[in-house]
Amino acid sequence: MMMKIGIMGASGYAGGELLRLLLPHPEAEIEFATSSRFAGEFVHMVHPNLRGSTMLKFTPPSVQGMADACDLVFLATPHGVSKGIVGDFLDAGVRVVDLSADFRLKDPADYPTWYGWEHPHPEMLADAVFGLPELHREEIRDANLVACSGCMAGASILGLAPLVKTDFVDKERIAIDAKIGSSGGGSDPTLASHHPERFGALRPYKVVGHRHIAEIEQELALAGGDPVRVGFTPHAVNMARGILATIHIWHNRPLMDRDVWAAFRGAYSDEPFIRFVKSRKGLYQLPDPKVVAGTNFCDIGFELDPHAGRLVVFSAIDNLVKGAAGQAVQCFNVMLGLDERTGLEHVGLH
Ligand SMILES: NC(=O)c1ccc[n+]([C@@H]2O[C@H](COP(=O)([O-])OP(=O)(O)OC[C@H]3O[C@@H](n4cnc5c(N)ncnc54)[C@H](OP(=O)(O)O)[C@@H]3O)[C@@H](O)[C@H]2O)c1
User: Fold this and answer.
1) 8 A C-beta contact, residue 240 and residue 129
2) CB 48 within 8 A of CB 23
3) Ligand 1 — pocket residues by CB below 6 A?
């Protein structure tokens, strides 16, 4: 059945990727693509890659209008917007895929701690399903509200979830060093994103206390059954798209490659968007975000470091696709009972 779709925040970077992926999707018909700033303009005025693909125009955001016209809405709005409007969609019987952080955390007390505000609808957090199909596929199928993971959080969780289920990981000593391209900050310009400041940068930021720690620890504790503590430090790097999470894990007994392979293969062998990258030959021996740009793949590889007693895992995604819009479309496919790869099968550029 063709679903009538609304995209709120369609002029943004994640919204643009939702349009790119959903316009050709065989089960989606886009009824609403909202923008306040560009209302009345063709979407290709803002997303020039869509020229010739659609004559769709932006409309101003209207919860009532979208609820009346749509079966399902994607909310690609800044943090703090969806918490005020999701209830209206759900009351109208419209399913929601939210790309922001407003419904990712289960414990209401985490919102003042990590985001600085009290959640206005703590009662809704329990029913929201964390939108990583690799971890929550069965719950996503019937969910009315899916809260997609953060981009760096998604890369980190996918690299770690199978390992925290083993008995060899020290769950109190995990360090994640994430590198992210400039589109991770969204399309609203700031001094930090201004070209002369951003170009050529390799800049650590939010070195401690980054908000994504909350969802990483939440999801890893759920996956492994014990509390997990991670140190997490992101770096702004000189790319527009892409994330590489380099994850340092200390283990509590000697390890062989086959122990790590057993964990990853056991968890991900049937996953359509997880690829293992660990080769002794060629240029691309380990995951590189360049290779997954534009795709919904998460490339995962690892190396053991017997000298330091360390396992190093690499997880590469495109922050706007597997880290945002692609993951949202993958969840949409699961919610509709479609093949998860629908509309997401393309490979990247080389
Ligand atoms: N960028 C990433 O890599 C990434 C990855 C994962 C998750 N996300 C999440 O996805 C969401 C969108 O991110 P983005 O990078 O695409 O941001 P963005 O480029 O700044 O786009 C935000 C969009 O929201 C609209 N908007 C702003 N305030 C609004 C309001 N009060 N009501 C309705 N629409 C409003 C904006 O358009 P108008 O002002 O024209 O209406 C714009 O279309 C954020 O929650 C972000 O955290 C982003």
Assistant:
1) no
2) no
3) 8-15, 35-38, 61, 76-79, 81, 99-100, 150-151, 183-184, 186-188, 319-320, 323-324
Neighbours of 135 (CB within 10 A): 20
What does the alpha-carbon distance between residue 271 and residue 324 come to, in Å, rounded to a whole number? Answer: 18
pLDDT at 96 over 80: yes
Query: What is the rounded average pLDDT for all residues in the chain?
Result: 97
Catalytic residue numbers read 151
Q: Is-above-0.90 flag for pTM?
A: yes
Task: Give CA 158 to chain center in angstroms.
Answer: 10
In 121-184, the DSSP E strands lie at 129-130, 145-147, 169-180
Which of 99, 180, 215, 292 for mutating ligand 1's site (highest number of atoms within 8 Å of CB)?
99
Q: Which two tokens stand for residue 116?
A: 């600085």
- Grouping H, G, I as helix, E, B as strand and the rest as coil, residue 254 is coil
**CA-wise closest residue to 89 among 55, 63, 50:** 63
Mutate to test the pocket of ligand 1, among 8, 13, 318 (most ligand atoms within 8 A of CB): 13
In 3D, which of 258, 259, 271, 78 has the Cα closest to residue 167? 259
What is the distance, to the nearest Å, from the Cα of residue 206 to the centroid of all Cα atoms in its chain? 19
Instruction: Report how far residue 140's alpha carbon sits from residue 18's, in angstroms, rounded to the nearest whole number.
Output: 19
CB atoms near residue 137 (< 10 Å): 15
pLDDT recorded at residue 296:
98
Q: What is the pLDDT of residue 1?
A: 76
| Ligand 1 atom at minimal distance to the Cα of residue 324 | 6
Q: Which domains does the chain have, with CATH numbers?
A: 3-127 (3.40.50.720), 152-318 (3.30.360.10)
Say how many residues make up the chain: 350
